[in-house]
Amino acid sequence: MSPRNNSQAGFFGRHRVWIIGLAIIAAVIVLAAFISLQRSDVPVRIAEVHRGDIRAVITTNGKITPVLPFEAHAVAPALVKRVLVREGDRVQAGQLLLELNTSEAQAEAAKALAQLRAAEASMEAIQAGGTREEILTTRAELVKAQTDRDAAQRNLDTAIILLRRGIPDI
Known about the structure:
mainly alpha, 2 strands, rod-shaped
């Protein structure tokens, strides 16, 4: 062989494996860069938000609250005479939901009035000739009876006002 062929074949011959390896690595890097530039967009679904009623039963964690909260209270303790709506019914503002029995309020007012009359009669009898202790005890009973009568009268007056406004038996 000629010396010229030996020198050319010597460099490429000795480093041929390295050169092929570097060429393969460079090709892989170029291919990876090309693929990464060719990424497609990820589709994203969107929807417009609308306020509305829940139309399906969903079991989940959370809390559903009314748009306008409302708590109903009676002016005095009373028994419910009649319920006019059921759970889940839609109601209008001012709609009557239930009727209460006012007979207890009327009985309380009558009882307080009777106690007041009895205390007044006892007071008159004691003032006519009773001991100081009896007078003080009777005055305390009279004040309590007047307070009970006034409270019962206020409850009855409120029930009458509501009845006149078209809200029966509250």
